[in-house]
Write a structure and sequence with these properties.
389 residues, two-stranded parallel ribbon, 18 helices, binds zinc ion
Length: 389
């Protein structure tokens, strides 16, 4: 019997995180909007490739049968969906099945052991519900330490929520949570928080890049952590990530893994000490040789977070040509002049990436920024757009 593939929304979400230079700001919002736009429940395919193919066709059909404004809006989704389709054909098919998640837990455990990191009697598992009192937590994955075992009788290890398992991402989460388990192996009065989140992401990047390559992981980590919404929690993860990757860039990966091994045997205290910037400065003096950095380090450190704009601004700003009058652009794109003027005003007010005067675009950095994947659209804005044509 063929192995079962992921729930359709989770399938798109996971694969979307692995694509290079997407237009969207959030893979999660992208997959939500796609499933709302198309009747995905009517797709009855067994394999992930066929599901993606069917979605791709439906979306293109919708875009070509829409009015000009809707069509230009949907073109952003079509472009990203095509990248997802290409990626799905490149990935080893075994990773497009639900069974691949639990299977990868052996690889993760072995990886930790090979780095001298003990996970102890912990289990990496997929569950229907998180154990009490964490059954209402909104996470996709959780780590349980010896403290949870003592306080709540929970078996130590990592649990992934079955309803949220998705390709690429779930393996990343398993590896991320396993870091918390390794650091919490020895009981200590410190929480798994702050910079430890960035360290867990770094180690997860190292592990997942051995399965999927550094290039894909560079895209995954940026697409996962550098996106809109989510409030302070998302900001906290992002800041921890940037701080950790900066530590690796300044002090080297060896420094980080020595720290991890030490804490694995002695508790988290010296991970918490990394919160002190003075310590980084002191350690810097003892480093003599700079190591070659993994690709995902430079990918994260060169990423802009704030270049996120609405869908209309995104699809319009990248089409505006220098020297062209707003009225001519409106005619060429078959949309209203007012919509073009709104986009110019909005980008100018927020990001200063274009200049217009007397109804004409004089400068426009947006096409280049869209192409490089820095400027991104918020997919969630699609559902609330009024028809302006
Ligand atoms: Zn974490």
């Amino acid at each position: 019997m063929k192995e079962k593939t992921f729930d359709t929304k989770n399938l798109i979400n996971g694969l979307a995180l692995g694509i290079s230079k997407p237009g969207f700001s959030s893979a999660d919002d992208f997959s939500t909007t796609i499933t709302q736009l198309l009747d995905v429940n009517s797709i009855h395919c067994e394999s992930a490739l066929d599901i993606i193919d069917s979605i791709n066709k439906k979306l293109k059909c919708l875009a070509s049968n829409s009015d000009p404004l809707e069509s230009i809006r949907l073109s952003a989704f079509v472009e990203d969906m095509e990248k997802i389709s290409l990626l799905s054909k490149k990935i080893d098919p075994q990773y497009l099945t639900v069974g691949s998640i639990e299977k990868s837990s052996n690889f993760i455990t072995t990886w930790f052991e090979s780095r001298g990191l003990e996970l102890g009697p912990s289990k990496l598992r997929v569950v229907e519900f998180f154990p009490k009192p964490f059954d209402t937590a909104g996470f996709a994955a959780m780590a349980y330490t010896s403290d949870d075992s003592k306080d709540h009788g929970i078996e130590p290890g990592v649990a992934l929520l079955k309803s949220k398992v998705s390709p690429l991402l779930s393996i990343f989460y398993l590896a991320h949570e396993a870091v918390h388990v390794a650091l919490g192996k020895i009981e200590a009065p410190y929480l798994a928080c702050g910079i430890e989140e960035g360290i867990a992401d770094y180690v997860a990047c190292c592990i997942v890049s051995e399965l999927f390559g550094e290039k894909l992981v560079s895209d995954l980590i940026v697409n996962l952590r550098f996106r809109t919404g989510g409030g302070s929690i998302r900001q906290l993860y992002r800041e921890s990530l940037v701080r950790t990757f900066s530590i690796v860039a300044i002090l080297g990966e060896r420094f980080l893994f020595d720290k991890l091994r030490y804490c694995n045997k002695n508790g988290r205290k010296s991970i918490r000490a990394l919160e002190d910037p003075n310590l980084i400065e002191q350690e810097r003096n003892s480093i003599h040789q700079v190591e070659k950095l993994p690709k995902f380090v430079s990918s994260v450190l060169s990423r802009s977070f704030v270049y996120n704009i609405s869908l209309d601004d995104y699809v319009i700003c990248k089409e505006l040509r220098i020297g062209e009058k707003n009225t001519s652009a409106a005619k060429r794109l078959n949309i209203s002049k007012e919509l073009i003027e709104e986009t110019l005003a909005s980008i100018n007010n927020k990001l200063f990436f274009c200049v217009s005067s007397n109804g004409k675009v004089l400068r426009n950095e947006c096409p280049m920024l869209c192409k490089s994947g820095q400027l991104r659209y918020n997919p969630a804005t699609y559902s609330v757009l009024p028809s302006k044509s």
